[in-house]
Design a protein that fits this description.
By secondary structure, this protein is mainly alpha-helical. It contains 17 helices and 2 strands. 60% of the residues lie in helices and 1% in strands. The chain has a two-stranded parallel sheet. The chain is globular, with a radius of gyration of 22 Å.
Length: 405
């Protein structure tokens, strides 16, 4: 019996020639699905709690970039232009929906071309909400909606958009990175860390904000993206099994030591120390990919979480884009309970606890999945679903010749 093809993530539709035999739908790599789900949970948890040690326990952004790089390398078995266009089509519509709502709200609250004193540049920068080659602009210091939406909500809305911008650049560069990886594997993998060191130690300084910001993100997480590609290309399998467990603790220790010696604490964590982040994320991703069991089916102990993990993977972009705003709304609504005498007199300990806010945040995230998540289906040319958790009611029969993620 032929072994199933294991996919690292959601596959792009690809129509075969009429003469080709129908290809089998690839089985998802459930280990990667688990990592992506944990990464999303950790991102929401960290943005609410702000605990500096959370990115150390699980560097979500490095893991998410690695998983995306793995999928990108797998997709590049098809023509690069077609793959890049497909990735952009899947990424951008959810951003456009966020921008349509968010920018409209900013405009209604008085944001205008005169807000930054450069009307011409304001209109030009607004195009980054369409194709985020740089960070989309937003209005700072806006008043919220009393009792519902906190102040400076636009800053929270725009907070996650750096990831979309970085992801887009990684997608555009991937055909070239893949060629470099095949020619010079380890030089390509380690080059972003070398770039990060050049920025950190002052060997490279660039004027302005937008280009240095993009290059800093590439230098911080580029090695993780390329590691994902290397895993798909089989580069990691060509090194002796004992090497990775021997080397990664040294790299991780170096990154943690550098962070601790440069003011690592709550309010100044790995995100503020890019060189340390690049080393720690690289080491974590390397060991996770080394372990990679490539599950085509869930182990028994994870089967009860199948629908939850499937939902998180199906709506990863929606959750990431909207979670900051959900946290702000949840915290604002929870704070209204201080106005009830019996609550602050007898339950102040509960009002000060972040745990109810966390639970409420996930309720709001679930509502965003229902209200906005369908755009991910539209972007992927799938039948829109409100709650795609893999249950029998949410599954649709794949078209002939189409890979269903």
């Amino acid at each position: 019996m032929t072994a199933p093809i294991v996919s690292s993530g959601t596959a792009d539709p690809a129509q075969p020639a009429p003469s080709e035999q129908p290809r089998r739908t690839p089985v998802r790599d459930r280990y990667f699905d688990l990592l992506r789900a944990i990464a999303l949970f950790r991102v929401v948890f960290y943005h609410l709690m702000g605990w500096a040690w959370l990115p150390v326990v699980f560097p979500s952004m490095g893991v998410m970039f690695a998983l995306a790089g793995n999928l990108m390398a797998r997709s590049l078995k098809r023509p690069p232009l077609q793959v890049v266009r497909s990735r952009m089509r899947r990424l951008l519509p959810p951003l456009w929906l966020l921008g349509a709502i968010g920018v409209s709200g900013m405009l209604l609250q008085g944001w205008s071309p005169n807000s930054d004193g450069h009307p011409g540049w304001w209109w030009f920068h607004l195009t980054f909400w369409i194709v985020p080659l740089s960070d989309p602009p937003y209005a700072e210091g806006l008043q919220g909606i009393h009792g519902i939406l906190g102040e400076d909500w636009a800053s929270e809305l725009a907070g996650p958009l750096w990831y979309i911008r970085a992801y887009l650049w990684f997608v555009l560069l991937s055909p070239f990175l893949l060629k470099a990886l095949r020619a010079l594997p380890w030089a390509t993998i380690l080059s972003p860390i070398a770039l990060s060191a050049a920025f950190e130690f002052g060997y490279l300084n660039l004027p302005g904000e937008r280009i240095p910001s993009a290059l800093t993100d590439f230098s911080t997480f580029g090695a993780c993206w390329i590691l994902g590609m290397a895993h798909q290309e089989g580069v990691l399998k060509r090194i002796p099994r004992y090497v990775v467990p021997s080397v990664t603790p040294v790299i991780a220790y170096l990154g943690l030591w550098y962070a601790l010696s440069h003011g690592f604490k709550e309010g100044h964590d790995l995100d503020d120390i890019p060189f340390a982040q690049s080393l720690w994320s690289f080491a974590t991703v390397l060991i996770l990919l080394h372990i990679s069991p490539s599950w085509s089916e869930w182990p028994r102990w994870l089967r009860p979480f199948d629908r939850l993990i499937t939902l998180l993977n199906s709506r990863a972009v929606t959750i990431y884009l909207w979670h900051n705003l959900c946290i702000l709304v949840a915290a604002t609504l929870w704070d209204q309970l201080w106005g009830i005498d019996v609550m602050w007199q007898h339950f102040s300990w509960l009002l000060e606890s972040p745990w109810p806010v966390l639970a409420f945040t996930w309720v709001l995230i679930c509502s965003c999945i229902v209200w906005f998540g369908w755009m991910e289906d539209v972007a992927a040319k799938r039948k829109p679903q409100l709650w795609p958790d893999g249950s029998s009611g949410s599954r649709t029969k794949p078209r002939a010749g189409t890979h269903r993620g």
